[in-house]
From TrEMBL:
GO terms for molecular function: delayed rectifier potassium channel activity. Pfam families: Ion_trans. It is a multi-pass membrane protein. The chain crosses the membrane at residues 111-132, 144-162, 174-197. Residues 1-23 form the signal peptide. This is Potassium voltage-gated channel subfamily G member 4-like. It comes from Sinocyclocheilus grahami (Dianchi golden-line fish). GO terms for cellular component: voltage-gated potassium channel complex. The keyword Membrane applies. Keywords: Cell membrane, Ion channel, Ion transport, Membrane, Potassium, Potassium channel, Potassium transport, Signal, Transmembrane, Transmembrane helix, Transport, Voltage-gated channel.
Length: 279
């Protein structure tokens, strides 16, 4: 596992350094949230190597030094646990994770309202269940109102671990009311968040499709030379015009026109001149 981790961390470190070198603005690169996650996922490995290089013979020191080493070991274990942040790197290549992050960022108001409603309901039902169980029946499960907050939270979110259960009829009535109100409170902003998720997914999908089409067009334009474009071009010529000119050399041409003007009579003797607006 150490060898696999070393290879993976080396690959991620090389990628991080190359992206840092190629970035136009180094400060903006370091401020990016995904880049911060990458750094937090890579650094614990190097910190653990530096700390593990020190010998463990220092445990023979007095209790003060040993307590310092224990605290340092706790910090090191916490840093090692941060390696789970490698999973967040999938957000660079996953449309679903990008949509989830965009939805959370756009729905902060809805999440704030949900938290507010939940806090108000918890503040309401915790004293009621404490009163119904401890004061009326003497059950010691709900020892205090702050302890009842935990029960109200897990009941309203329909988790229900079962570590604290009301046993009296008034307590069960309060529990039923808290569960039903929790379902309604959780359902209020769910529709808005769902529509925001769908809208964000469509926007990101259209953006990815547009970038993909632009990349394909740029690749096609790079492979196509200017000569091919000239060969495939065409010149628009004007359409030919038909010009009617009277045939003065052919005898009878004017005579035929006069016959048409007389209503199609075939008699050549009755010749009348054509009006000026005939043509």
């Amino acid at each position: 596992m150490f060898i696999i981790e070393t290879v993976c961390v080396g690959w991620f470190s090389l990628e991080f350094l190359l992206r840092f070198v190629q970035a136009h603005s180094k400060l903006e690169f370091l401020r990016g949230p995904l880049n911060i996650i990458d750094a937090m996922a890579i650094l614990p490995y190097y910190v653990s190597l530096i700390v593990d290089e020190n010998p463990t013979s220092e445990h023979e020191r007095p209790s003060g030094g040993k307590g310092y080493l224990d605290k340092l070991g706790l910090v090191l274990r916490i840093l090692r646990a941060l390696r789970i942040l490698y999973v967040m790197r999938l957000a660079r290549h996953s449309l679903g994770l990008q949509t989830l992050g965009l939805t959370v960022r756009r729905s902060m108001r809805e999440f704030g309202l949900l938290l507010l409603f939940l806090c108000v309901a918890v503040t309401l039902f915790s004293p009621l269940v404490h009163l119904a169980e401890s004061e009326l029946t003497g059950v010691q499960d709900f020892s205090s109102i702050p302890a009842s907050y935990w029960w109200a939270i897990i009941s309203m979110t329909t988790v229900g671990y079962g570590d604290m259960v009301p046993r009296s009829i008034p307590g069960q009535v309060v529990a039923l009311s808290s569960i039903l109100s929790g379902i309604l409170i959780m359902a209020f902003p769910a529709t808005s968040i769902f529509h925001m998720f769908s809208r964000s997914y469509q926007e990101l999908k259209q953006e990815h499709d547009r970038l993909f089409k632009e990349e394909c067009a740029a690749a096609a334009a790079a492979t196509t030379g200017p000569e091919d474009e000239q060969d495939r071009g065409w010149v628009a010529f004007p359409p030919p015009r038909l010009v009617l000119t009277p045939d003065t050399e052919t005898p009878g041409s004017f005579e035929d026109l006069s016959l048409l003007g007389n209503g199609g009579e075939t008699s050549g003797k009755n010749k009348h001149p054509l009006p000026a607006g005939a043509f």
